Amino acid sequence: MGTRILVTGALGQIGTELVEALAEKYGLGNVIATDVRESDNCRSLDVMDAEGILSLVEGEEITEIYHLAALLSATGEKNPELCWKVNVDGLENVIAAAKQHDCRLFAPSSIAVFGPDCPSIAPQVTPLNPATVYGKTKVVGEQLAMTSDVDMRGLRYPGLISYKAPAGGGTTDYAVEIFHAALAEGHYTCFVREDTQLPMMYMDDAIRATLEIMDVPAEKLGNARGGYNIAGCSFTAGELVASIQRHLPDFTCSYVPDIRQKYADSWPDDIDDDVARSEWGWAPKYDLDAMVDAMFTGLRS
Ligand code: NAD
Ligand code: AKB
Question: What is the CATH number of the domain that holds 111?
Answer without folding.
Answer: 3.40.50.720
